[in-house]
Amino acid sequence: MANKIEVLGVSKLFRREGREIVAMERTDLFIEEGRFVSIIGPSGCGKSTLFNIIAGLMPPSSGKVMADGRNIVGKTGYVGYMLQKDMLLPWRTILDNIILGMEIRGVPREEAVQRALPLMERYGLKGFENHYPKELSGGMRQRAALLRTLLYDRDIILLDEPFGALDAQTRLMMQNWLLQIWEDFRKTVLFVTHDIDEAIYLSDDIYVFTARPGRIKAKVTVPMPRPRTHQDMTTPQFAEIKHLLLDLLSEEVRIASDQERIS
Amino acid sequence: MKSAGSEAYAMQPSALGEPQMTPVSQEIRVAQDEEAAERKRMSRVRLGRVIVGILIVAGWELLTRIGLLDSYFWSNPSTILSTAWVAATQGDLLRDVLFTSGSTILGFIFGTLAGSLLGLTFWWSRTYADVSEPYLVVLNAMPKLALAPVLVILFGIGFFSKVALAFAMTVVVAALSAYGGVKSVDPDMEKLMYSLGAKKLQVFTKVVIPWSMPWMISSLRINIALALAGAIVGEFISSQQGVGRMILYAGTILDIDLVWVGVIVLSALSMLMYGGVVMLEKRLLKEFPK
Q: Are strands A188-192 and A205-209 parallel, antiparallel or unpaired?
């Protein structure tokens, strides 16, 4: 299958207090269309930097990002982006939050609502159209945030630790919910997480990043068949992958914490 | 006794044994009604407030009647009331009230709007904001009332110099409040908007303005009081109308009863406008929650 996104030789350097800090070493990523790809790595390994560069919010120091064969460096609006915080606007109803992306693009409200309502119904937000974000639970708010990203209608979606702030049970529910959406829409998903179980459960491919300066240490493909259930998390195959990832990560986490002590 | 841990594994409820039932059915259960208790307390508070008010007015009247307080300086409630009646029916009290409240409200509206708009513009460029900030702080520190003579010369002794003073009193506070709101906008929120393809103007209208609303609203209460102070000082400097002018005039002819009328009318006016602003604030905050 063709590559949907190609990250070619992208690096990012910052200069602080006269010192050059390499946030991201030259990195190449090739992500096929329709794949669910996770990125794991110690904190501060440049995952968010990579996302900001792909989303066009930050220029790379070198390299380029290709999507569908076009260079999208510095181009915002080409990918859907979702953060750990739900970022719903508190003065807008859930419905008005969900159609925000379409509103910005200039889609008439009538049409935007027509598209949003069936999705809200299918993905468990029916009846909450006119509620305000603060009236909803954390899980529901994240759902609304994800629907907003989906309705923005990009083929590529970046999810930066979207479930990081949720409690364990809600998280499990949200993972299945996300898988259902992904199976329905078949978007290409790039997913950052700290949770190894989550990465294995959701992904086709997992990229392990090194400690700063961040670069790719390994690519692990998860061969478990889909659709998956949480029962799959207790299979020997799952444990084997987890073991491998833990080995790869533990070294990097140690290096990262050493760096923290020095700086 | 065995340790609980080994036995606690998947224990059936029946294994716990039936609890001993003691007959308690005769006992009447009383729900703890916290709302009723609170209602009762609030009605006592209201009653207490009324009583204190009556005591103050009655004490004032009594102390001046028996001569413990000199009624020349302190006047007393009944004289104030009758003086006010005369001033309202035969004098220009009502016209003065309209004059003062009109200049206050106009100055308040223009000052708050202009200041808020100015504060919002600081979002567009951090350099522009950082260049302006010290001047804003200086303007805020400067006692605007000291400008009164200049403004009266500029705008004349009529209505508009009072509006200008009320404006000068409120504009900087409003600007600083709006600037505070602008600075508090979550950068991630802006990031999200840009990732959705938003232009800067869209981020401004869809995020920055509503986000800053609670900050701008918080300046309303202070500003209505400041606007009134500005209007009154303007009348003190030079004016042919207004409650402030009436007080000044009454003072020069040693009509202290009339001074008291002015003070009490101004207090009432201030409370009324404050109440209006609080209502406005409530409505706006409902529209633009944090």
A: unpaired
Looking at residue A88, the DSSP 8-state letter turns out to be: -
Determine the pLDDT at residue B11: 55
| Domain limits for position B62 | 37-74
Angle between helices B159-183 and B209-237 (to 10 degrees): 150
Q: In this structure, which topology does domain A3-79+154-262 adopt according to CATH? A: Rossmann fold (3.40.50)
Encode burial over A33-68: b for 16+ CB neighbours within 10 A, e otherwise: eebbbbbbbbebbbbbbbbbbbbbbbebbebebbbe
- Omega prior to B187 cis, within 30 of 0: no
List pLDDT tens digits, range B38-75: 999 999 999 999 999 999 999 999 999 999 989 899 99
A58 interface with B at CB cutoff 8 Å: no
- Higher pLDDT: A16 or B58? It is B58
HEC per residue, B118-186: HHHHCCCCHHHHHHHHHHHHHHHHCCHHHHHHHHHHHHCCCHHHHHHHHHHHHHHHHHHHHHHHHHCCC
B194 touching chain A per CB within 8 A: yes
User: Is residue B1 in a domain?
Assistant: no
Compute the nearest-CA separation of B123 from chain A (Å). 18
* CATH number, residue B230: 1.10.3720.10
ipTM: 0.85
Does the model's pTM come out above 0.95?
Answer: no
Predicted local distance difference test score (pLDDT) of residue B2: 46
Domain count, chain B: 2
* Pick from A52, A100, A132: CB nearest B196: A100
